[in-house]
Recover the amino acids of this structure.
DNA sequence: CGTATTCATAACTACTCGGTTATGTAAAAT
DNA sequence: ATTTTACATAACCGAGTAGTTATGAATACG
């Protein structure tokens, strides 16, 4: 998934809290996720749908309940992006440092 | 800055593109950033204001023009958060693996 | 000086989006 | 078979937000 989608998906606090809980506590049902989410069950379901489309969670149906679980590997584009940005910046910084050093001699 | 603010700030494509350009190309004026941004100059100024409040960029006034530059260090809460999430997940994974191994013997 | 340039701010608009209630669907329970 | 339970979907609404044009403020220029 593109990092753009990940940013938009994780920008919402409720959604991010759901993902965090799944990372900390493992697979949970919608009912369990709803209590403590601070919003209604339909709201939770919608958020879980968005998280799923972003690849951040997976679902498993068991009887009439659905278990959701985190897929933190999906965060890798985000990690790559931040690394890339800091690297670009560092590159220019090194180049500048080099230039100053050469000017100094 | 809290990672919540960073996610919300970087969720907008135009804003993220501005930050990326500043990381790649170094300090740039508002006029230069505006051409190629695909939106009007006031829009660019507003986005830069939001990026600044998030600590992602800094500005420097030089005569009548303002130079903006990236501060990728501000991304660290984001990096920490992703690390934390994957760690939580890994911890539970390791515990499970352990349990299975003990059950196997 | 007066004018032009560069950026920021104000005021407004259109749309997105997160929330709600209501309802549908499928599986368990009685 | 009927009812309850668990979740998803639909329809709708209010608030936030990204965009616009218009204008203000400050600095360079002729």
């Amino acid at each position: 998934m593109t990092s753009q989608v990940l940013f938009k998906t994780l920008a919402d606090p409720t959604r991010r809290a759901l993902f965090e809980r799944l990372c900390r506590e493992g697979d949970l049902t919608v009912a369990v996720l709803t209590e403590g989410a601070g919003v209604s069950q339909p709201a939770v379901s919608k958020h879980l749908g968005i998280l799923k489309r972003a690849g951040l969670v997976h679902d498993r149906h068991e009887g009439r309940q659905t278990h959701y679980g985190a897929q933190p590997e999906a965060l890798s584009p985000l990690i790559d992006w931040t690394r890339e940005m800091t690297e670009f910046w560092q590159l220019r910084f090194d180049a500048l440092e080099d230039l100053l050093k050469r000017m100094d001699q």
Notes: The radius of gyration of chain B is 20 Å. The interface with chain A takes residues 4, 7-8, 10-11, 13, 16, 19-20, 23-24, 26, 70, 72-73, 75, 78-79, 82, 85-86, 88-89, 92 of chain B (CB under 8 Å).
